[in-house]
Amino acid sequence: MHGQITLDNARTVRFLNGGVRFFLAAALTAAQITGGSAPFALGFTAACGAGIDGMCALAGAAVGALVFLEFSAGLAHIAVAILVYTAAAAFRGMKLTDRPLFTPLVASGMTLAVEGIYVAQSLSPLARLTPCLLTTVLVGVSARCCAPLLRGGEEAKKPESLEFLAVTLLLAFSDVAPGGISLGRTVIACLVLFTAWQKGASAGAVTGVWAGLLADLCAGGNAPVFTAAYGFAGMAAGLRTGRSRISAGALWLLAALTALAPVTQAQGISAIGEAALAIPLFLLVPPKLLGGKRVKQAVHQEPGALPTLRERLERAASAFRDLYDSMGRGPVQSAEENPAIVFDRAAERVCRGCALCDLCWKKEYGATYNALNDATPYLLERGRTLAKDFPNHFSSRCIHLPEFLGAINVELSAYLLRKQYRRRMEETRQDAKGQYARLSDLLAATAANLEAVPTAVGVRCRYQLGAAIKPKQGEVSCGDTLASFETDDGLLCLLLSDGMGSGESARRESALTCRLLRQFLEAGVEAEAALNTMNAAMALRGQETGSFSTIDLLTLHLESGEAAIYKYGAAPTYIKRFGRVRRITGAALPAGLKLSPAGPDVTRLRLEPESFAVLISDGAADSNHDEWLQNLLAGWSGTDPQQLANLILREAEKQNGLADDCGVQVLYLPSEGLKEV
Questions:
Q1: What region holds the PPM-type phosphatase domain (predicted)?
Q2: Which of 7, 101, 301, 535 lies 20 to 30 A from 605 at CA?
Q3: CB-based contacts of 562: which residues, under 8 Å, 6+ apart?
Q4: CATH class (in words) of the domain with range 459-676
Q5: How far is residue 316's CA from residue 518's CA, in Å, rounded to a whole number?
């Protein structure tokens, strides 16, 4: 019953996804630019890719062309859509398609090929050349902007992509204009105003310019009326970011009137009315409706107030709860082993050199298979096999029966031992999960009964950070994750984790490792204890996912300058001061490859002012090929850690050709001294 429900839900989701893509592709066809083309629908169709979703978008684009476009423009539109879908289907599954610019370039190329034919055959090719090139560019831009929404996971759905899709969809309704006021452009103006108020003047100006530019292209005017109005008004409204909405709306209208004052065209009058009408809409819209996920506001604290012991215990409880949750995620590898492997391995040892091998395993394979299958329940129940477990036609024909039975018993013993080991490992994993959950509940209960005990404040040294990261050649996602943060105790932590393999799966594994370890450290758990806990949990989790990660952690007490470097299978760390470079390595395996007790390699040192600490992944350099990096660090005379991180990444690409994911994180302690907190 549950399987049927899951199947029905999956079919419903597929149907809804296809229906949404069909509707959007059809509706976007109504958003036409000068020349009568609909580039946004073509870009959306390209972003949908191949498969059922792409086919639904293709059908929607075709229906939209028949409804909204003229005959010749509709034929060109459908031809481009078919070519784009065909290219997506032809290249499906290739790593080339994972590159961000592949789909936009293919879509633009197909558009240029089809539109170019119409330009060449027209009576005035020069007049149609500009709309052709404009359509080509907009198709590529649309495909690039829509791709994160249609192909990525939840974390790939960027607000900018959603804004672009919303604006282009609203442009399809720009011709709905009762009283000369376009409803589509009015909502676009409200969206620009809201973005400016929420994100500031620069974001408001940028959003206003590109949204206004698209509105001008669809309106077909000769002057950039909406570009000027939305861009200037968005910048002005952004000056009141986070403050009174009424004052932001007033600045918006004043700036729009100023920008549109020289305009005498009818579009200018309409733009003023639409900008004014956008203000009441803006005042009525709830902030969370267009603001995406709510951001947790930081609690204001007095300068001397630091988190209490209760808060630390609550954070530790949350960290253990997340660690418990992580052990139930990810694709679970099948723990069951087919008993047929016992016969396969025994036959490999005994039957390969037998004179009757072809007879038993080729000509009479069916009879042999049935004989072994019939004997399986007896040998699994007894723990060993006997000649009577096999049918007479098999045992009488086998000329090496004693040797075959002996080989089966040896392999059966190994099979049963492996099965017992897996069962015990699963029991251990479940016990550990339960312990993490109980420990989380215990810490949470203890925290609830504690009074606030503020921690002390002190004087901390200054620092600067730099980081650079680049995925393996041919991959979109980088399997390395970098993190840097400062705990409430004044402990600066730099984290670098390299997930097994490369691509999105490696990125998820390394990101989970960094997130969980960060939670432990921010909760006040000692670094070595947190790493030992993580290693044990990841080893148990690896039994179900088969994955592991390296961990490179640098901690620095900002009050004393005492530092420690912890390594689980990580690449070397380099400490540079003036012309001297110290190289720190470790021999511990990556976290998750060995159960406790398997602590990390620990190196303790003191970082003086004007020191650099450089953390890298093995894709940038490893212990067997890092002379170039030591020479680069020894000769570096700058003080900007970001410049150094970028330089190391560029040189690593030259040295290794991006054969693996590359991550670099740099810490610099300037000579200015200390800061009081």
A1: 462-669
A2: 535
A3: 556, 604, 605, 606
A4: alpha beta
A5: 11
Q: Which two tokens stand for residue 247?
A: 């004052």
Rounded Cα distance between 198 and 531, Å, is 40
- d(CA 18, CA 16) in angstroms, rounded, equals 5
Q: Which amino acid is at 329?
A: R
pLDDT tens-digit readout, 34-76: 778 889 989 899 888 888 888 998 999 999 989 988 888 888 8
Fill in the amino acid letter for 117.
I
Q: What is the mean pLDDT of residues 574-596?
A: 84
DSSP state of 604: E
Q: Which of 220, 160, 213, 212 is nearest to 189 (CA)?
A: 212
3-state secondary structure of 472: coil
Token pair in block for residue 600: 């990390």
Query: What angle do the packed helices 159-171 and 2-28 form, to 10 degrees?
Result: 50
Q: Identify the CA nearest to 185 among candidates 204, 165, 170.
A: 170
| Residue 328: both structure tokens together | 């139930």
Q: Classify the C-alpha dihedral 365-367-368-369 as positive or negative.
A: positive
pTM for this entry: 0.47
End-to-end CA distance of the chain: 61
Cα(584)–Cα(623) distance, rounded to whole angstroms? 10
How confident is the model over 470-489, as pLDDT tens digits?
998 888 889 899 999 998 88
The verdict on domain 1-156 having CATH code 1.10.1760 is: yes
Over residues 95-106, the pLDDT tens digits come to 777 778 888 998
Q: Is 493 helix (H, G, I), strand (E, B) or coil?
A: strand
* Residue 413 in tokens: 């013993």
Domain boundaries, the chain: 1-156, 173-292, 340-455, 459-676
**Residues composing the chain:** 677
